């Protein structure tokens, strides 16, 4: 068992390692970006990655403060579902509504890798590979469809 401080430091070390591993990887426009803190360029739409003691998750989250705006963005993504799945080469879980850690209503599309722990360094290569493949594919997809979400 880790103390809060040890757990925080280990997670920080993981994300630093992931960031260093991804640093030489260019985005779809051949630019250097911060993959850990991926910027979609569209307000209220985020690409989130997380690694916990039980799983690794990657998601598209829509956190529009207005429910109608959130639903609209989710429906636009839903209309692109088959196109997204072509990039990802897999199906993800679609949640039109969930409540985040702050209790805020949001929508998300996500996938998880279960049975891995960020606290086990032997799992890091598997987690990194899982996240890397998917964030790169999300970036390629987003490069094609982003303009459909601009106001």
Tell me, what's the shape?
Answer: globular
Domain count, please report it.
1
Portion of residues within helices: 40-55%
Taking all Cα atoms into account, the compactness measure Rg is 16 Å
CATH structural architecture: 2-Layer Sandwich
Structural class: alpha+beta
Average of pLDDT: 95
Q: Are there runs of 5+ residues with pLDDT below 50, and where? A: none
Could you tell me how far the N terminus lies from the C terminus, measured between alpha carbons in angstroms? 48 Å
> What's the helix count?
4
The name CATH uses for the topology is Yope Regulator, Chain: A
**Strand count:** 4
- Strand arrangement, major sheet: 1-2-4-3
Assign the CATH class: Alpha Beta
Strand portion, in percent? 15-25%
Main sheet specs: 4 strands, antiparallel
Compressed to H and E, one letter per element, the order equals HEEHHEEH
Q: What can be said about this structure in brief?
A:
By secondary structure, the chain is α+β, with helices and mostly antiparallel strands. It has 4 helices and 4 strands.
Walkthrough of the structure:
The chain is of the alpha+beta class and 151 residues long. It has one domain: Yope Regulator, Chain: A (2-Layer Sandwich). Helices cover 41% and strands 21% of the residues. It contains 4 helices and 4 strands, in the order αββααββα. The chain has a 4-stranded antiparallel β-sheet with strand order 1-2-4-3, covered by helices on one side. Strand 3 and strand 4 form a beta hairpin. Helix 3 crosses helix 4. The longest helix has 22 residues. It starts with a helix and ends in a 6-residue tail after the last helix. The mean pLDDT is 95.
């Amino acid at each position: 068992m880790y103390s809060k401080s040890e757990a925080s430091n280990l997670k920080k070390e993981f994300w630093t390692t992931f960031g260093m591993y991804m640093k030489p990887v260019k985005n779809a426009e051949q630019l250097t970006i911060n993959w850990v803190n991926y910027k979609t360029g569209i307000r209220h739409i985020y690409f989130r990655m997380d690694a916990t003691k039980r799983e690794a998750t990657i998601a598209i989250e829509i956190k529009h403060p207005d429910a109608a705006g959130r639903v609209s963005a989710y429906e636009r993504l839903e209309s692109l579902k088959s196109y997204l799945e072509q990039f990802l080469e897999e199906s993800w879980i679609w949640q039109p509504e969930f409540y985040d850690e702050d209790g805020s209503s949001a929508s998300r599309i996500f996938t998880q890798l279960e049975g891995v722990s960020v606290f086990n360094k032997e799992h890091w290569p598997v987690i990194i590979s899982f996240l890397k493949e998917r964030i790169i594919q999300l970036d390629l997809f987003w490069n094609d469809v982003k303009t459909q979400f601009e106001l």
